[in-house]
Amino acid sequence: MPDVGTTAPAVRRAKPGRGEVKIMLDLHSTVSSALTERYTANASRVHELATPLTSAQFWQKPFPFGNSFGHLVLHLTGNLNYYIGAQIAKTGYIRDRPREFSDPNPPSKDEALRRFDEAVAVVLETIRAQSSEDWSAAYVGVGSDAGNRLTMVTQCAAHMQHHIGQMIYLNYQWQQGTNLR
Prior knowledge:
Elements: H1 18-50, H2 55-59, H3 69-86, H4 97-102, H5 109-129, H6 149-175
Helix pairs in contact: 1-5, 1-6, 3-5, 3-6
């Protein structure tokens, strides 16, 4: 048994064994598959929630606080286009975050959802393009503390889920006919 304060030397192999390569490939496939499934499900949920809303409801806030459903869609679109599109896929996207919440002339509901779908498509393409080594590549983005690509892609999925929760609540309020303004 080693003395307190000492550690066993790290074991390194020049080449991974066959079983280790298979495990890493399986892990890579599992991570990529899980992430693409999550983003696809999240995008489907956004559309499902948006469908019953009129264009007016999509952009109007049912309360004097918070955001409209449409502005949350713009925000998610900007978030995905910046953190994954611009920073990982190098799309050149330039984000105007304040406008995501305050655009006085927003696009139509259909156009906002189309742009959202395009951002999700970039995310899915980027996920599929990552190698096992790419996931641990250093990540830097304004407002992010993610240290690697996997952490950032996971954080963006969680961010989507958070705002989908808000969308569920907004949708519920509109369906109940609640307008507290």
